[in-house]
Amino acid sequence: MKYRKLGASDLSVSEISLGSWLTYGVGVEHDGAKACLERAFELGINFIDTANVYGRGAAETVLGELLAGRPRDSYVLATKVFFPMSETDRGLSAVQIRKQIDASLARLRTDYVDLYQCHRYDPATPLEETMEALSEVVRTGKARYIGFSEWSPEQIEAAFALPGVERFVSSQPQYSLLHRRPEEKVIPISAGHGVSQIVWSPLAQGVLTGKYAPGAQPPADSRAVSHLMASMMQSWLQPDILEAVQKLKPVAQEAGCSLTQFSLAWVLRQPNVASAIIGASRPSQLDENAAASGLVIDPALFAKAEALVAHVRRPT
After folding, report:
1. Does the annotation mark 54 as catalytic?
2. Phi, psi of 236 (to 5 degrees)
């Protein structure tokens, strides 16, 4: 496993990180979550990403239990705040940030998180209030650093223009061979401010593994047949997308790796990406994904792959 510095922080994170969206505490049983986490650490993955809203606290609770007893400085832990936790608890107001960080720490059974992220931008709260509250979280030792997810270029610039507040060190956008929007503005702006990308859905909800063939039933053990997880990926399961992805397989073979590893290596080719978040319901998936770290692939093959999927448009 290779490691990269996370923005302007002193955190060193594994190129492949373990996420918990739709999995731990939700779609994956306790024993499966335990097996995956243990294998992740064995493979050198040191970065764990979660959020308070995942299972309305369930993912944090499971991770808190499974991480208990491990030396706190042996892993990097990130969580998020914004989405509704109840009918009244939501957003990035000072009241909510103070309330939700304490609740997350209690569920995670820790005194601090390494990274506290705004899960989205909150237009209902003044940015100054949000940034001051996040700064308080850092200055009271409840988080070491702060980050954001899916903020617009204008919102990022506005946060960095505020005086006297803590600075973001990370951005968490969706980014993959099939979704390249961050390259236009978010990545250049981030690089200029000492912000690294921690990308989610680098495999386009598993589509870039190549296991979903056009016109065929999804594999019985895949996310696409899970009633808890399938709804979030339906827009990727379009015939033209699946057909284009199948054409990538020979390119990956030429590179000497699986399509999964090729797709993750493509994301990691971008120097502003610190880590690619993967989800896993079985330890074997972690073995497959972790092998992408440190892969050296001919840039010409990446360019060939980009051309093969350039026409793909995901329905909105």
Report:
1. yes
2. -85, -20
234 or 147, which is more confident: 147
pLDDT at residue 216 is higher than 70:
no
DSSP conformation class of 221 = T
CATH topology of domain 3-205+260-296: TIM Barrel (3.20.20)
> Residue 19 phi/psi, 5° resolution?
-100, 170
Kindly state the tokens that stand for 206.
Answer: 């598993």
291 vs 313, more confident? 291
As a whole number, mean pLDDT of residues 210-232 equals 63
Query: In the prediction, which pLDDT does 225 show?
Result: 47
- What is the C-alpha separation between 178 and 233, in angstroms, rounded? 13
Query: DSSP character for 218?
Result: P
Tell me how far apart the alpha carbons of residues 122 and 139 are, in angstroms, rounded to a whole number: 22
Reference 59, options 43, 42, 39, 83; nearest CA is 83
The residue annotated as part of the active site, out of 24, 54, 75, 145, is 54
Q: What does the pLDDT look like over 174-194, one tens digit per residue?
A: 999 999 999 999 999 999 999
Measure CA of the first residue to CA of the last residue in the chain; give whole Å: 35
CA distance 99 to 207: 37
Those residues with Cβ within 8 angstroms of residue 178's Cβ, 6 or more apart along the chain or in another chain: 204, 207, 208, 236, 241, 245, 309, 312, 314
Q: Residue 103: which residues within 8 A CB-CB, separation 6 or more?
A: 52, 57, 85
CA distance 86 to 183: 35
DSSP reduced 3-state for 295: coil
